[in-house]
Design a protein that fits this description.
- The protein is mainly β.
- The chain has a single domain, classed as Immunoglobulin-like (Sandwich).
- It is about 0% helix and about 55% strand.
- It has a four-stranded antiparallel beta sheet with strand order 3-5-8-7, with no helix packed on it. The chain has a four-stranded mixed beta sheet with strand order 4-10-9-6, with no helix packed on it.
- The protein is elongated.
């Protein structure tokens, strides 16, 4: 048996049930990491994340790379990676500021050649 509660707030009736709130899929962002498919290891690699979401949310960004080192951009929409001596790099980002039930990560794989 579910409990049902009607609350009057500022003249509007709000219906609440005993069920847990479900995420609104429309409020979850679409996250996509962009970067090259193949890159020269002697030059810095650039990656950027596109976040399509509600304009009221200010996202946070936490990047990681499988190889090489992030040179700049940690905490921003775009990073530069030093992949010297590497043959393959995956750049991943976790985007914060949205509901915990949303998919908040994406990544991009790059073949590195000399």
């Amino acid at each position: 048996m579910k409990a049902i509660c009607i609350v009057l707030a500022a003249g509007a009736a709000v219906l609440a049930t005993g069920a847990a709130a479900q995420p609104n899929p429309a409020s979850c962002p679409i996250i996509e990491v962009h970067g090259p498919d193949q890159a020269n290891g002697r030059e810095p690699l650039g990656f950027a994340v596109e976040v399509r979401a509600d304009d009221t949310v200010v996202p946070t960004y936490n990047w990681s790379v499988s190889a090489g080192m992030i040179q700049s951009g940690q905490g921003t929409k775009a990073i530069t990676v030093d992949a010297s001596g590497e043959t393959f790099v995956t750049a991943s980002v976790e985007v914060g500021g949205f509901g915990p039930t949303c998919k908040l990560t994406d990544s991009k794989d790059v073949d590195v050649v000399d």
